Amino acid sequence: MDVDGGPKPVLVPEAPPPVLIGNSGDVGWEYGKYCDPTNKSKIKCNFCGHISTGGIFRFKQHVANMDNSVIGCNKATPEAIADCKNHFQCTEETKSKKRQHEQDLRDDVHITSATSHGTAIEDVCVGSSSSEPNKLGPMDRYVHPIDGKSSKEEALRQLSMNKALFKERVHEASQYVARWVYTHAIPFNALDNDEFRKMCEAIGKFGPGYEPPSQYELREKLLSEEYARTKSLLDDHEKQKMKLGCTIMTDAWTDMKRRSIMNLCMHCSGRTLFIRSEETSNVSHTAEVIFELLDKAIEELGPAHVMQVCTDNASNNMGAKKLLLEMRPKIFWSSCATHTINLMLQGIGNIKRFKTIVDQEKNVTIFIYVHHKTLAHMRKCTKRRDIIRLGVTRFASNFLILQSMVEKRVALRAMVVDRAWEEMPIVKSKKVKDTTATLMDANFWKGVTICIKVFEPLVILLRLADGDVKPSMAWLYGEMLKAKIKIKEAFGNQEKMYKETISIVEKKLKGRLDTPLHKTAYLLNPHYTYANTDIFEDTDMTVAFMQCAEQYFGDDYASLAHVNHTKRRNRLTTDRLNNMVYVQFNTRMMSKKQRLMDKKKADSLLSSDASEAQGWLFEGGDDHALAVFRDEEDGDQGVHPATGIPYDVLGEAMGTQDQLQLRRSARVNMRDLEEEEFISDKEDVLEEDDIEYEGDDEY
């Protein structure tokens, strides 16, 4: 402590040394580095010291000794050679699959030719005497017909002109596509799919003079034909339903026109299909109404083939559950596992010790993302990686962002002690000081680590329930038991520490994910019973199994007649909407299933929509959410890369504890005593900016 009581000097370390490896994560950076950070083309070999001048690709050829045009490395280890060769092989396989996929898309497009019906139609085509339009394929960008009478020099000159002409034609055609996208605000990702490529191929095969369909054709004839085509693609699913049974799922929502719509879906054999949507704007969502919609769907699919109904935990759904069990006692009713787990995460997140940590991190991200300079400085320190990861729900976003900040902790702490941070004009504001103190506080990072340890078991369970990799019913109860054990371990198995958290989990679990059906699925899963044969001796498991068997194989119940409501408002519009949703939903689900088969599915919790992460971007952002619902030991051993000084020491020298300590001003105390209206001084309003995000997986 200083004798004069003055503040301690703040240690401002020098800037870290330049990074001499690339940000791509390429395997080549394990065996080489830049000679000069400003010259990205020269890479020095760690084995022999050779300098490659063609970038990382030619450097890997040097290490792998696989190209005569590049000098090979005579000191490379067998592991390094194998790594580089495997990388080249995987890259070539990926390109080959992509080329084959593009060719399959082209072959899948069939357009009737002009002479297919026996009547030749004269088409005038520039540069060709053929009666059909010119068709360009992948090879046309490399080869082109050349007059055989021309000399070698003329042929080469003509070939160069053809390449330039092809490139120019592609650019001109792309300009028209871009103009349509920009004028009508078409999302860019709408062009990144196979259907768009097939559309372009079909128009190209048709040739000049193609007339696009009218609005009437899109609404009526073409929509009906696409509905029939989509339905025919799901015929194999009908066979699976007849063989294995199915589950009916419901989802109520409100569209942009404030129409209340109930979606009915069917899940069978690891795939979810859309059945239809019902507009329910003219009725209250009572238990009787929901039961009638479900009962009608059961009749359509066949009562003998419906094994289960799955809904969320709303009170009206619980009322419909009682009615269904009375009318159709053989059908099981289950609560939505995803909804239940989100409720657990919400309840735990509202506990004071966790909410405080999450709120502190939100204040950090809001301050960084609301200013252009702080955002640019953060991305520079994190190598252009964002700290915000978008999740499918608000609670998934919370976990993903906490995890992201821990991964970038060293970069974030280096950011706030960098000279550029201190030189910002807003450095004197309280929010800057709070952000700096938060990121330098060791206790804060300990709290973040505890949050991740507690949230992670439930997030793993959420991935299981929300993903389509495998049916989750047989795993939910067993994985929930494991999650409870891991949560207790996160608190050091101290009951007074984990009691509140576990009580929330058990409260949400009771009657939802611990039903006789869940316990029976757990009992019949050999993954658990082979590991622990004592499960067969558990009385609760035996009773649950007997209850399920009695419910399903009990006496048959007579079918009851039900009243079908035929009153509809704007029935044509409702039917058209139903067909459009049927086509869109089932097409996306089939594409999702294909991605799973191709092993291209990303994390099921990640999203491209920022709606569920608004609370991390501006104050009060959680109110805009659409859904209303590394692991280290104690201590912080991180050090600043330039000085080697532990961040705990830097934080203490900067007075982080004093900055974060809660204070009550004299004005607040006076307001409490006199109970008068109090108007605080206006703070500077931070402007909200539209920011484009760059995900971690892009680098």
General description of the model:
This protein has 699 residues and is of the alpha/beta class. 50% of the residues lie in helices and 7% in strands. The chain contains 26 helices and 8 strands. A 5-stranded mixed sheet has the order 6-5-4-7-8. A hairpin with a 5-residue loop joins strand 4 and strand 5. Helix 1 crosses helix 2, helix 11 crosses helix 12 and helix 20 packs across helix 22.
SSE layout and pairings?
Layout: E1 32-36, E2 39-45, E3 51-52, H1 55-64, H2 78-107, H3 152-183, H4 194-206, H5 215-219, H6 221-233, H7 235-244, E4 246-254, E5 260-268, E6 271-279, H8 287-301, E7 306-311, H9 315-327, E8 332-335, H10 337-349, H11 352-370, H12 372-381, H13 394-407, H14 409-416, H15 419-422, H16 430-440, H17 442-466, H18 473-490, H19 495-509, H20 516-523, H21 526-529, H22 539-552, H23 571-597, H24 647-653, H25 656-660, H26 666-674
Parallel strand pairs: 4-7, 7-8
Antiparallel strand pairs: 1-2, 2-3, 4-5, 5-6
Helix pairs in contact: 1-2, 6-23, 8-9, 10-17, 10-19, 11-12, 11-16, 11-17, 13-17, 14-16, 17-18, 18-19, 18-20, 20-22
Brief summary:
The chain is of the alpha/beta class and about 700 residues long. The chain contains 26 helices and eight strands.
- Overall, the morphology is globular
Record the strand order, biggest sheet: 6-5-4-7-8
Q: Would you report the number of β strands?
A: 8
Low-confidence stretches: 1-7, 9-13, 115-133, 556-572, 630-637, 664-699
Residue fraction in strands: 5-15%
The share of residues in helices is 40-55%
Q: Calculate Rg over CA atoms.
A: 32 Å
Mean pLDDT: 76
